[in-house]
Amino acid sequence: MGFFSKTCEYAMRAVFYIACHSENGYRPGIKEIAENINSPEHFLAKILQKLSKEGIVSSIKGPNGGFFIEANGLHRPLADIITSLEGDEIFTGCGMGLSYCSETNPCPLHSEFKKVRNQLTQMLYSTTIGEFNEDLLSGALTLKK
């Protein structure tokens, strides 16, 4: 079980995979990406289409086509992936999903969850898409079991 939705999990895996291959000019196709990140191809296609509309990934059609990330895109924060797909609820929402939870009307988990949420927000906004490329290419990190 992950902390993120399946959509965000697949999106981050795909973006990491695409990013580590973009630096050398390679553009993987949807089938290759799906196989290498353990994602359903059809579901991943929809995710990548949305990420493409948001400018996080780019694609070229045709026999030499595929997905890639522009050099400046490697410096974007991971938070951009999440907000482009699901908005900013993960950075502002209640840990129990209660709509009324606030500073003046806190839920039982409010104070402790706020600390965790703030740490997660900091990490996702300070970590860039391209930050893991070297470790992914060397095999120090993995996207697939």
Would you write up a description of this structure?
This protein has 145 residues and is mainly alpha-helical. The chain contains 7 helices and 2 strands, in the order αααββαααα. Strands 1-2 form a two-stranded antiparallel sheet. β1 (58-60) and β2 (66-68) form a beta hairpin. α1 (6-22) packs across α2 (30-37), α1 (6-22) packs across α3 (41-53) and α1 (6-22) packs across α4 (79-86). The radius of gyration is 17 Å and the shape is elongated. The model has no long low-confidence stretch (mean pLDDT 92).
Topology:
Blueprint (H helix, E strand, L loop, with lengths): L5 H17 L7 H8 L3 H13 L4 E3 L5 E3 L10 H8 L2 H4 L17 H17 L6 H6 L7
Antiparallel strand pairs: 1-2
Q: What attributes does this structure have?
A:
mainly alpha, 145 residues, two-stranded antiparallel sheet
Strands of the biggest beta sheet: in what spatial order?
Answer: 1-2
How many strands, which pairing sense, and closed or not: the largest β-sheet? 2 strands, antiparallel
Stretches with pLDDT under 50, minimum 5 residues: none
Order of helices and strands: HHHEEHHHH
Quickly count the helices. 7
What is the 3D shape?
elongated
Structural class: mainly alpha
Mean pLDDT, all residues: 92
Tell me the span between the first and last alpha carbons: 15 Å
Count the beta strands: 2
Computed Rg: 17 Å
Helix content: 40-55%
Strand content: under 5%
